[in-house]
């Protein structure tokens, strides 16, 4: 997640519009993936989901 | 209105615009006067465009060597903005100075740093090297002011599906709006990349008339938006049936907020084909200027329409807006963290 001190290097988010569908497929730098049909919802998920690397540190 | 992101480099002018006549530009609400020194270095100087005395625009004044002499009462400033002469008295008040702005001239652009001068890093100026590479690229360019929130221009450029409708018969074909995009956001670099690869597309007049292609094409549009100011569209056109991209075009924009309701739209088209063909150069300049003016007219109209909307008006975003939404978020972050 972006913080006040700025994002770390390597934080890349990708969203592919799946050809032949109205669906967006998003992948976070943490490895989490999400499918949605609304770009606002997609970016909302991208910025608020619990990152996998954070889970693995617990 | 889209918030301004300070502590960033912005394009204020083309180098060719700045000389021994003072040039006025307003960047992020800050009026600035530009000129070039007369020594061998011919360095670009950027001073706050208001005399400290009675706020007269220094851009409406004159140069005496490398000093600016205010056209109202003669207050005189050196290249650092320090006042070195006031009329009628020897004592120059300590506060008699105007801000000078860090400037970098690179890739044919004059970049100015808006924010804390201590934070200006000239190595961090975004690059568009093709614009200054006359050996491999031939470029045409211009600038048009738009009476709109700069965010509307960012929206426009990040979603090229509008080419099909606003620029139909020029650069748009049905395939642009119909082809899915991929979007990538590099948070640390504040870069948004949007790609649209059309495998079998009509060749729009912009490319048909400049390349001579008559049939269908493979058309790749790969956008890199280096927020907040620099936008690069890497365009590759290949005649159907050929393997390697045959025609490369770099479309460059610099999106420089002027005031809260106005933006400078710097545009350039660089090509690696027919490089010495003056007819192609003239055609691409005039044709692209027409395309830019279609955007200018549309965004002026859109801004006027938005001005009549009640606060908090609703928008609807769909898949084509994925890149534009990412850019909005990056701009909001830059504006928030660098105040």
Class by alpha and beta content of chain B: alpha+beta
CATH class of the largest domain in chain B: Alpha Beta
User: How many alpha or pi helices of chain B?
Assistant: 6
Integer tally of domains of chain B: 2
- Number of distinct helices of chain A: 2
Strand order of the largest sheet of chain A: 1-2-3
Residue runs with pLDDT of under 50 for 5 or more positions of chain A: none
CATH-level-2 architecture of the largest domain in chain B: Alpha-Beta Complex
| Structural class based on helices, strands and sheet pairing of chain A | alpha+beta
- Categorize the overall geometry of chain A: elongated
| Major β-sheet annotation of chain A | 3 strands, antiparallel
Count of beta strands of chain A: 3
**Gyration radius of chain B, rounded:** 22 Å
Main interface: chain pair and counts: A-B, 25 and 19 residues
What does this structure look like?
The complex is a heterodimer of chains A (58) and B (339). Chain A is an alpha+beta fold. Chain A is 26% helix and 24% strand. In chain A, β1 and β2 form a beta hairpin. Chain A starts with 11 loop residues before the first strand and ends with a helix. Chain B contains six helices and 17 strands. In chain B, a hairpin with a 6-residue loop joins β6 and β7. Chain B starts with 7 loop residues before the first strand and ends with a helix. With 339 residues, chain B is of the alpha+beta class. The model of chain B has no long low-confidence stretch (mean pLDDT 97). A seven-stranded antiparallel sheet of chain B has the order 11-17-16-15-14-13-12. The interface between A and B is medium-sized, with 25 and 19 residues. β1 of chain A pairs antiparallel with β12 of chain B.
């Amino acid at each position: 997640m972006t913080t006040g001190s700025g994002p770390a290097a390597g934080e890349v988010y990708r969203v592919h519009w799946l050809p032949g569908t109205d669906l967006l497929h998003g992948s976070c730098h943490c490895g989490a993936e999400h499918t949605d049909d609304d770009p606002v919802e997609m970016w909302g998920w991208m910025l608020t989901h619990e990152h996998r690397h954070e889970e693995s540190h617990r | 209105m889209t918030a301004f992101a300070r502590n960033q480099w912005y394009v204020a002018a083309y180098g060719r615009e700045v000389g021994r006549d003072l040039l006025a530009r307003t960047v992020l609400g800050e009026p600035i006067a530009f000129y070039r020194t007369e020594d061998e270095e011919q360095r670009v100087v950027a001073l706050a465009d208001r005399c400290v005395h009675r706020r007269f625009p220094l851009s409406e004044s004159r140069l005496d060597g490398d000093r600016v002499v205010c056209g109202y009462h003669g207050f005189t400033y050196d290249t650092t903005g320090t006042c070195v002469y006031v009329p009628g008295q020897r004592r120059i008040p300590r506060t008699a100075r105007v801000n000078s702005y860090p400037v970098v001239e690179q890739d044919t652009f004059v970049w100015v740093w808006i924010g804390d001068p201590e934070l200006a890093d000239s190595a961090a100026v975004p690059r568009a090297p093709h614009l200054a590479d006359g050996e491999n690229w031939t470029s045409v360019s211009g600038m048009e002011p738009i009476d709109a929130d700069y965010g509307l221009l960012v929206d426009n450029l990040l979603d090229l599906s509008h080419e099909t409708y606003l620029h139909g018969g020029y650069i748009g074909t049905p395939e642009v709006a119909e082809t899915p995009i991929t979007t990538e956001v590099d948070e640390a670099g504040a870069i948004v990349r949007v790609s649209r690869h059309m495998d079998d597309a009509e060749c729009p007049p912009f490319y048909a008339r400049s390349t001579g292609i008559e049939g269908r094409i493979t058309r790749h549009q790969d956008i890199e938006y280096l927020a907040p100011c620099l936008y690069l569209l890497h365009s590759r056109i290949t005649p159907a049936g050929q393997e390697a991209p045959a025609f490369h075009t770099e479309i460059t924009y610099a999106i420089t907020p002027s005031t809260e309701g106005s933006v400078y739209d710097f545009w350039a088209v660089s090509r690696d084909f027919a490089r010495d063909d003056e007819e192609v150069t003239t055609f691409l300049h005039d044709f692209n200027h027409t395309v830019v003016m279609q955007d200018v007219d549309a965004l002026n109209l859109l801004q006027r329409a938005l001005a009549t909307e009640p606060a908090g008006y609703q928008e609807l975003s769909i898949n084509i807006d994925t890149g534009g939404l990412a850019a909005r978020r990056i701009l909001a972050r830059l504006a928030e963290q660098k105040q």
